[in-house]
C-alpha cells in the first residue's frame, strides 16, 4: 500500500501541521466550517500555509460555503484543492472548479449502495469523490469518527479518482484499504487525542500503518 495517498484533515495548529509533514502525509486538510472543533479562520490558514509551504498540499474543506468565504480561504491558505462536504450539486462543483481553477473533491455521504452510485453524477464536475459515512441529522456532516460498510466499495470502479473517509484509525486503516482498494485515505478524529487536538504520534502511526501494509 506504499502508493496510497494520505490526507490528515482538520489541521489547526503548527504542531499538527509539522506532524503531518514529518510523518509523510500527502495532504493537510484545513476546515473552514465554524461549527467544527477544527475550524480555522484566514489568519491561521495564512500562518499554516507559511509554515508548510510546498512540503504538503493543502485542501480547504467547506460545507455549502459561498464564493466569498471560499475566495478568502483560497487566498489566505494558498489552497491546492477544494473539498466540498455539504449538499453541493454537480453544477456548483463545476462552477467552483472553473471560478478558482483548483481541483474539487466532492464528499459523498454513504449509507447505502445507491449513495455510492450517486458519485457518478459528479463526473465532469469534480476531480475526485470522497466516500464518507453519512452522519446523523443535526450533527457535523463529517469529522464524527463514524464509518460505513466498507464492503459497499468492494471492487468499486467509478469514472473519477476516489478516496475513503469516515472512522478510519491507525488500527483499522490497513483493513480499510485491503477491503476497499482505496487509492486515498482521509482521517480526522482518528488521529486526535481530543476533538480538534491532533496527536502527532497517532498521525505517525496512521501513516506507517498505510505505508507498511
Ligand atoms: O473534520 C471535521 O471537523 C469536519 C467537519 C465537517 C465536515 C467534514 C469534516 N471532516 C471530514 O470528515 C472526514 C471523516 O472524519 P473522521 O475521520 O471520521 O473524523 C474527514 O476525513 C474529513 O474529510
Task: Explain this structure.
- With 213 residues, the chain is of the alpha/beta class.
- The chain has a single domain (5-212), classed as Aldolase class I (TIM Barrel, Alpha-Beta Barrel).
- The protein has seven helices and ten strands.
- The strands form two sheets. The chain has an eight-stranded parallel beta barrel, surrounded by five helices.
- The mean pLDDT is 97.
- The ligand O=C(O)c1ccccc1N[C@@H]1O[C@H](COP(=O)(O)O)[C@@H](O)[C@H]1O binds next to strand 2 and strand 8.
Quantity of strands, as a count = 10
Instruction: Indicate the structural class.
Output: alpha/beta
Number of helices: 7
- Rounded Rg: 16 Å
Examine the secondary-structure arrangement and name the CATH architecture: Alpha-Beta Barrel
Helix content: 25-40%
The main β sheet shows up as:
8 strands, parallel, barrel
Ranges where pLDDT stays below 50 over 5 or more residues in a row are none
**Strand order, biggest sheet?**
1-2-3-4-5-6-7-8
The CA-CA distance between the termini, in Å, is 5 Å
Give the overall shape: globular
CATH fold-level name? TIM Barrel
* Overall number of structural domains: 1
Which molecules are bound in this entry?
the ligand O=C(O)c1ccccc1N[C@@H]1O[C@H](COP(=O)(O)O)[C@@H](O)[C@H]1O
How much strand? 15-25%
- Let me know the CATH homologous superfamily: Aldolase class I
CATH class: Alpha Beta
Question: What's the rounded overall pLDDT mean?
Answer: 97
- Topology as H/E string? EHEHEHEHEHEEHEEEH
